[in-house]
Amino acid sequence: MKKIGLLGGTFDPPHMGHLLIAEEVYQQLGLDEVWFIPSNDPPHKTATDTLVNDRLEMTQLAIDSNPHFKVNTIEIERSGISYTFDTVKTLIDEFEDIQFYFIMGGDMVEYLPKWHRIEELVEMITFVGVKRKGHELSSPFPIQTIDIPVFEVSSTVIRERIGEGRSARYLLPELVESYIKERGLYGSE
Ligand SMILES: Nc1ncnc2c1ncn2[C@@H]1O[C@H](COP(=O)(O)OP(=O)(O)OP(=O)(O)O)[C@@H](O)[C@H]1O
Ligand SMILES: O=C(O)c1ccc[n+]([C@@H]2O[C@H](COP(=O)([O-])O)[C@@H](O)[C@H]2O)c1
Question: Among 56, 126, 153, 170, which residue has the least CB neighbours within 10 Å?
Fold first, then answer.
């Protein structure tokens, strides 16, 4: 059976933290691939100003140089609110020969009790939690935890820095940084 990691995210923008956790979990669990799934409308956040196509394009650029990373557009194609339950249900129905692992940072681990249909979802997929500064990895739900070198970067910090005209170099892939400048995202010139 193939083993595939899923990294769902808003990716507004994608950054080195996302790539680092995907690579670490890929290595440590011996996964075949990691699929990055940009959400259409994230369930727990107010709508982002960034166009979904820009988030998708940036995610594609971010994973460009890594042959075992893929982008999956299932949530964008489904449109509406991107509940993970719906995504996982569709994927496991479609790919019966794949074992899926849903990767997430500590902030999402803490939020798990509020996820849509979480009681059913935990029976359907293995959750893999990784440390994020300021968040606990303990959960009332069964999750597997993986030790990673903690790198506390966030999309919020990157949006703020770019908006203030400060450098975000080395916090995100160069191709994504160039795309942000070309498109004038987050108040960049
Ligand atoms: N630096 C990081 N370390 C560990 N996990 C991370 C890190 N950044 C993001 N993640 C995880 O990646 C997934 C997608 O995150 P998301 O796209 O919301 O990025 P974010 O940096 O948390 O964004 P924002 O600051 O806009 O909330 C989530 O499970 C999140 O916990
Ligand atoms: O399904 C839910 O109720 C749910 C609630 C919160 C987060 N998620 C998913 O968790 C992933 C990370 O979320 P985010 O907003 O930090 O990018 C992303 O795939 C979200 O759709 C899912």
Answer: 170
Residues near ligand 1 with C-beta < 6 Å? 9-12, 17-18, 21, 104-105, 107-108, 130, 132, 151-156
Note the ligand closest to the C-alpha atom of 147: 1
145 forms beta bridges with: 129
Q: Other C-beta atoms within 10 Å of 184: how many?
A: 9
Ligand 1 atom with the shortest distance to the CA of 151: 1
pLDDT of residue 169: 96
**Residue 82 near ligand 2, beta carbon < 6 Å:** yes
Mutation probe of ligand 1 site: the residue of 11, 21, 56 with most atoms within 8 A of C-beta: 21
**Tens digit of each residue's pLDDT (9 = 90 or more) over 164-184:** 999 999 999 999 999 999 999
Of 164, 165, 188, 163, nearest in space to 178 by CA: 188
Using one digit for the tens of pLDDT, what is the confidence trace for 29-39?
Answer: 999 999 999 99
Atom number in ligand 2 closest to CA 84: 1
